[in-house]
């Protein structure tokens, strides 16, 4: 270290101390950086002393809590920016990781052995992490490759740890489908639903969804739906009463494609859920209504495909973005060889329907994997429903289940064949070992990166939490609310408040406008334009009203009292649980509580009612969803009001303009016309000049003043050219045929001068103009009268003067004659001259 550096180092603590004065302008991250720099430098003083100095800057002398709070807030803002950045990186890395692994992945789970299972059954398989070697004969083993193989001892936790990235991916905005596939009794329902003590993928996934949503910077709105596809029909499992009459009168739900190409299931109930408990209750209801029956293979065999849909709407407040996606968790019906099950009648039909749709699903996934131009979605209801969630940007996971039983060898071979097909081993086998090795390496690196970033996120969250606590201590609990980093999804209450607020604001607007004179009230058309009738869903305004498809009235206005499966997710309910449509979960078909209950309108329509107001992007950073929602609704309210006012304003402005021009025209006409040969074809040059003069006067904020008529031929010609613009034309740009460029510009400027003028100023001018017009006329005539009177007066005076003079002369002559009778005649003659 040279002398200069040493000197700098020696004085560093003092320099830092001198910075104390700027204490209130410094943020903790700066102090941290300085401490870090000191650590990095070789200390000439004990390092601890210098670090303490740096920390002192932040801590000592800072007695004002406001200053501290401001610093904490700054720090929190910077941390939240960091968190956002890292979250984005993490999301990107996770998606790269999943993409590299494949957008369609296949896992295999082998059900545990029963105690009665033979040794032969137990030695049917040999496994490793991603391969199953199946003994198909005494001497032959067949290899099946998977993304992951779970041996019979694997736990629900093991399975879920591999599924979890996909759930996270759903939170990141991807459509995700998780299927459980396998023969009857192979453990599909066990994997998906689990047992009360051993929860499966669905409950764990939902828990993770809520957890991740609460940690996210975005706000989420979740809706839950549950349906089954039974013998090719779609049935809503959240509509009670349908099973009691054997689904006889319940029509199959229709599948519709919305304008964006998304799939909508008409009349499907979608309940807004805010927490795990709500989902659990609904799942319990749905499970009770699911079609199950006792078969030879399984006493509670699922006779249908059970689909759980979580629709997610995420609101990115700072980015002003809203995104929707779906997470499907599907417990497929058991594939079965009908010959073996010896099913007859209804069971046979059910089995056939299940097998057909499973085969169609296999075809679709195979077509997607092999990137075929035609994907046969239309071949089954299952693939039609999942059309927008399979392929493209979606992620699919197939959890294949097998039963390790020698008797089930044929089924196992079929199942593994299906898995091979959907996994597209063919594509993978084309990769060279070198490529495979590099891919593995890259995957490892990406996995590590995701973990590191996750760690970093956790650290930042901890810091934020600490700062929040400090803040709470400093300022009390109310501040913690304003800087709340703990995010919760919007409650139905919040939605209610917002909806009612919007409705109220529109109502107020109507009340205000009804107080206006009739001619100032917006017409029905303008009400529609400015959004006063926005309470009508936009979709209804676009489409002609369609008579709603109604379910039997027994479907609603009904209180359900259902025995809830005690096994369902550690149900804290007793064996019986009452779910009233108006109690626990508000099932009322109302838009205000966010429940999407599609009795009178399609699911899409109701969503439009709920979300259409939030869809409009607007500017400005708003941190929390609550604030954003309020800002949005206020924004909307303001917009509506503003638009209303602008409309009325425009109307008034227009009226004033027209009145002003009419007034000026009148003024022009009142001025005497110019006569003469050259002006014979001019209708009223003075009128134009008057109008121009009036415009000019308006522009210059002067009084209206009449300008003298054009004095020479040039002026008159010019006036003639300008005269082509009538009052009406002054309000719209003149056509080229009517005027030269210069005149057009001039005219346009004048016209703009009018339109740019404020309403008040125009109103004043109009009033002025209106008031002055009669005064001027009176003034002119009065002046003429006075002038003539004055002239008469002068003439009279002169006359009198001459008369007086004459009289004087006569008087003088008479006097002089009388006084000097002796004077000569010549003398008198000279005087007379
Ligand atoms: N991994 C496992 N660990 C413990 N028990 C299991 C496991 N897998 C399945 N079982 C048990 O096997 C039985 C049948 O499983 P399950 O009902 O999940 O089969 P399934 O494939 O859903 O059948 P189906 O298609 O007929 O509905 C259940 O009693 C379940 O508890």
UniProtKB/TrEMBL annotation:
Residues 534-554, 728-757 are annotated as: Disordered. Residues 436-470 form a coiled coil. GO terms for molecular function: ATP binding; microtubule binding; microtubule motor activity. InterPro entries: Kinesin-like_fam, Kinesin_motor_dom, Kinesin_motor_dom_sf, P-loop_NTPase. One of its GO terms (biological process) is microtubule-based movement. It comes from the Eukaryota. ATP binds at residues 182-189. Gene3D superfamilies: Kinesin motor domain (3.40.850.10). Residues 103-425 form the Kinesin motor domain. PANTHER family: KINESIN MOTOR DOMAIN-CONTAINING PROTEIN, KINESIN-LIKE PROTEIN KLP-3. This is Kinesin motor domain-containing protein. It comes from Lolium multiflorum.
């Amino acid at each position: 270290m040279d002398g200069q550096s040493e000197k700098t180092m020696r004085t560093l603590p003092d320099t830092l101390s001198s910075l104390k004065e700027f204490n209130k302008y410094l943020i903790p991250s700066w102090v941290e950086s300085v401490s870090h720099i000191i650590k990095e430098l070789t200390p000439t003083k004990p390092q601890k002393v210098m670090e303490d100095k740096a920390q002192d800057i932040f801590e000592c002398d800072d007695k004002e809590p406001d200053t501290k709070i401001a610093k904490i807030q700054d720090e929190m803002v910077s941390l939240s920016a960091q968190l956002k950045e890292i979250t984005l990186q993490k999301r990107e890395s996770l998606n790269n990781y999943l993409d590299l692994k494949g957008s369609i992945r296949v896992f295999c789970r082998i059900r545990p052995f029963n105690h009665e299972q033979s040794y032969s059954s137990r030695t049917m398989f040999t496994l490793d992490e991603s391969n199953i070697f199946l003994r198909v004969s005494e001497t032959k083993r067949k290899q099946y490759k998977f993304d992951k193989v779970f041996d019979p001892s694997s736990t629900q936790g093991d399975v879920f740890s591999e599924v979890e990235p996909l759930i996270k991916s759903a939170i990141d905005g991807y459509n995700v489908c998780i299927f459980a596939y396998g023969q009857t009794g192979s453990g599909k329902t066990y994997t998906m639903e689990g047992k009360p003590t051993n929860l499966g993928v669905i409950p764990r996934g939902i828990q993770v969804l809520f957890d991740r949503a609460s940690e996210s910077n975005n706000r989420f709105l979740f809706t839950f739906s549950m349906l089954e596809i039974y013998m090719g029909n779609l049935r809503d499992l959240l509509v009670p009463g349908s099973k009691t009459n054997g689904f006889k009168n319940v029509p199959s739900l229709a599948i519709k494609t919305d304008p964006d190409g998304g799939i909508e299931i008409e009349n499907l109930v979608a309940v807004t859920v805010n927490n795990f408990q709500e989902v659990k209750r609904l799942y319990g209801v749905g499970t009770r209504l699911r079609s199950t029956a006792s078969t030879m293979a399984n006493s509670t065999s699922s006779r249908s495909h059970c689909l759980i849909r979580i629709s997610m709407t995420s609101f990115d407040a700072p980015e002003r973005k809203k995104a929707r996606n779906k997470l499907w968790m599907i417990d497929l019906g058991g594939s079965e060889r009908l010959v073996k099950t010896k099913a007859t009648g209804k069971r046979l039909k059910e089995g056939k329907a299940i097998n057909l749709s499973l085969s169609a699903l296999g075809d679709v996934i195979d077509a997607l994997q092999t990137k075929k131009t035609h994907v046969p979605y239309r071949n089954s209801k299952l693939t039609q429903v999942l059309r927008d969630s399979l392929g493209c940007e979606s992620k699919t996971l197939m959890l294949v289940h097998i039963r390790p039983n020698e008797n089930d060898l044929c089924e196992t071979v079929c199942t593994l064949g299906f898995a091979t097909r959907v996994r597209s081993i063919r594509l993978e086998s084309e990769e060279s070992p070198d490529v495979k090795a590099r891919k593995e390496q890259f995957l490892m690196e990406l996995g590590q990166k995701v973990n590191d970033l996750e760690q970093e996120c956790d650290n930042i969250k901890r810091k934020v939490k600490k700062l929040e606590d400090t803040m709470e201590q400093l300022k009390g609990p109310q501040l913690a609310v304003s800087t709340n980093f703990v995010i919760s999804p919007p409650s139905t209450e919040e939605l209610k408040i917002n909806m009612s607020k919007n409705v109220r604001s529109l109502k107020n607007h109507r009340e205000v406008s009804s107080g206006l004179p009739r001619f100032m009230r917006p017409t029905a058309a303008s009400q529609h334009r400015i959004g006063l009738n926005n309470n009508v869903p936009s979709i209804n305004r676009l489409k002609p009203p369609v008579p709603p498809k109604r379910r039997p009235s027994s479907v609603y206005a009904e209180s359900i009292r259902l025995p809830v499966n005690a096994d369902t997710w550690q149900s804290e309910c007793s064996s019986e649980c009452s779910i009233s449509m108006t109690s626990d979960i508000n099932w009322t078909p109302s838009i205000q509580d966010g429940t999407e209950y599609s009795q009178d309108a399609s699911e899409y329509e109701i969503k439009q009612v709920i979300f259409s107001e939030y869809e409009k992007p607007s500017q400005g950073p708003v941190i929390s969803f609550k604030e954003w929602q309020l800002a949005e609704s206020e924004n909307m309210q303001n917009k509506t009001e503003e638009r209303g006012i602008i409309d009325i304003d425009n109307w008034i402005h227009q009226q004033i303009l027209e009145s002003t021009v009419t007034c000026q025209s009148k003024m022009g006409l009142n001025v005497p016309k110019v006569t003469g040969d050259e002006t014979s074809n001019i209708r009223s040059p003075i009128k134009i000049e008057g109008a121009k003069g009036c415009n000019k006067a308006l522009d210059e904020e002067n009084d209206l003043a009449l300008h003298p008529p054009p004095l020479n031929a040039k002026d008159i010609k010019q006036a003639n050219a300008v005269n082509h613009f009538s009052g009406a034309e002054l309000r719209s740009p003149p056509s080229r045929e009517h005027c030269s460029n210069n005149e057009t510009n001039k005219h346009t400027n004048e016209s703009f001068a009018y339109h740019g003028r404020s309403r008040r100023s125009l109103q004043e001018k109009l009033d002025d103009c209106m008031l002055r017009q009669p005064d001027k006329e009176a003034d002119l005539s009065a002046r003429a009268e006075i002038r003539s009177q004055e002239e008469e007066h002068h003439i009279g005076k002169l006359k009198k003067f001459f008369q007086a003079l004459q009289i004087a002369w006569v008087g003088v002559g008479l006097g002089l004659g009388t006084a000097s009778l002796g004077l000569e005649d010549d003398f008198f003659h000279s005087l007379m001259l």
